[in-house]
Structure formats: C-alpha cells, structure tokens
Amino acid sequence: MIELEQARSHLEHLGMAQAAAVLDSRLEAAAQSQCSYADFLADLLGVEVAARRERYLLTRTRLAHLPYQRTLEQFDFAFQPSIDERQVRDLAGLSFVANAANLLFLGPPGVGKTHLAVALGLRAIEQGNGVYFVRAQNLLEDLRVAQAEHRLDRRMRVYLASKVLIIDEFGVWPYDRLAATALFTLVSARYERGSIILTSNKGFAEWGDVLGDSVIAAAILDRLLHHSHAMNIRGDSYRLREKKRAGFFAAPPATQEVMPPEH
Fold it and tell me: Which residue segment(s) compose the domain that 127 sits in?
C-alpha cells in the first residue's frame, strides 16, 4: 500500500525508527480493536517515546561509569539494621539533588556503602540527571597530575559536568598535600552547584591524616557537610556473609575438656 509506505518513510525521515518498525503491527491491532485515530496515534507515539527513553537511560548509565547496576530494591536492609531504611527511601526522592546537597556514607568495608551510592545514582539517572562515578584514588591521582601539569581547570570540567558526582572508597589510601588541595578545589567548585555522594571507611576525625593536612581536611568537610545527609553504617560485611554461608568461616570444632587426674 502506497500510503502505508509513505507513512513509514515519513516516520523514518523524522527519526522515529521504532514507530516505523512497529507501524504494521500497530495498524493491525488498531483495526481489530476498532480504536479511534487519536488512540492509534497515541499508541504509536508511545512506542517511540518508550524506545527513546530506553536509549537515553542506556546512554546516561554508560556515561556514568558505574561499577555495576544495583537498585534499592536489591539492598538487604534487614542485614544492616543500623541503616534507617525510611531515610534512604526519602533520599531516593532526590530532593538532595534538587538542593545540591551531599550524601556521605561512612562505615567499614562491605557494609553496602557503594551499593547505596550506585542505587541512588541510578535513580538520579532515571529522573534525567547526569551522574559520574569515580574511585577516590583515581580521582585524586587524576587531579594531582592535572594540577602539577597546570591543566587542572580543564580536567575539572569532567567532574563538574554531572549533577551527581559519586566518589567511592575515600580514605582507603593516603594522599599527599597536592592531591588534597586539588580535592578542595573540586569540592569548592561543586559547592551549592551539584551533589556529591561520597563513601568512606574513615570517620571525619581521621580525614586530616588521610589528606596529610588537617586544615585542608577541615575546609573540605566544612563545604561537604554544610548541606548534607551523613549516614554511619555499622554492621557485618555482605561479602564475608557470603563466605560464611559457603563455609569458609566455619566455627572450629569444640575441644574435649581434659579433667585433672584424681589424687
């Protein structure tokens, strides 16, 4: 049918490839259900909108450089009772992103800090926000080298472009004063402009030792904590839990009590 081919050609010319691909099947379904022209058009355009949203989310997720994709629904709150689940659910509403506030998840390795950061990052992507994930060690080394080579301003654009910047595993390695100064520059540049989600195994009192300068550490914390939500997670490691289930941490066999000899 000439009209059908023309319609398909117009859709393709307009860049509506998915609508063009399903045009035949949607026309057939519309004829069988005897739906109105408006309903048919809404259905066809809905297919295209859904396809474009899926491509958008895939692209945004790829550009975020997330280490994996895990959602809040996959988080085992029962295993970490120290976490206020209601507070996390409230954070998932993303008001902190709208207010350019920061999130700080503190706690020992394996308690789910990165999982929560990634899950909230995915939620931010779903709502149309740019997200960028980086390990603290890679970030600090990148900024340190850029500052030493006098190109910090240009490199900083990478970490300022997204609405949400996730800095993971801060405090695992110590940093020198040059890296600390570069981090201060970044935090100051994002202050009240974009959100930072930061995970760390160090308490705030230890940041001076991590950064090698207590004054710079205090200045960074002053900006991070001014508009922020901090959560201290206390509990067992998820990774060690799986090892325990597999029997790697089985309890040692009970020793037989030795009775003293009778006299």
Answer: 72-245
Strand partners, 232: 106
18 lies in the same domain as 89: no
pLDDT, position 252: 44
Model confidence over 131-182: pLDDT tens digits? 999 999 999 999 989 988 999 899 999 999 999 999 999 999 999 988 999 9
Q: Is the pTM of this model over 0.90?
A: no
Reported residue count of the chain is: 263
In a domain, 235, yes or no: yes
Number of domains present in the structure of the chain: 2
Indicate whether 156 and 212 sit together in one domain.
yes
Regarding whether 199 and 130 lie in a shared domain, the answer is yes
C-alpha atoms less than 13 angstroms from C-alpha of 255 in its C-beta half-sphere: 3
> Which ranges in the chain belong to alpha helices (H)?
2-13, 17-21, 23-33, 37-64, 85-91, 95-98, 113-126, 136-148, 152-160, 177-190, 207-211, 214-226, 238-245
Whether 149 and 55 share a structural domain? no
Query: What average pLDDT does the chain have?
Result: 90
DSSP SS3 for 19: helix
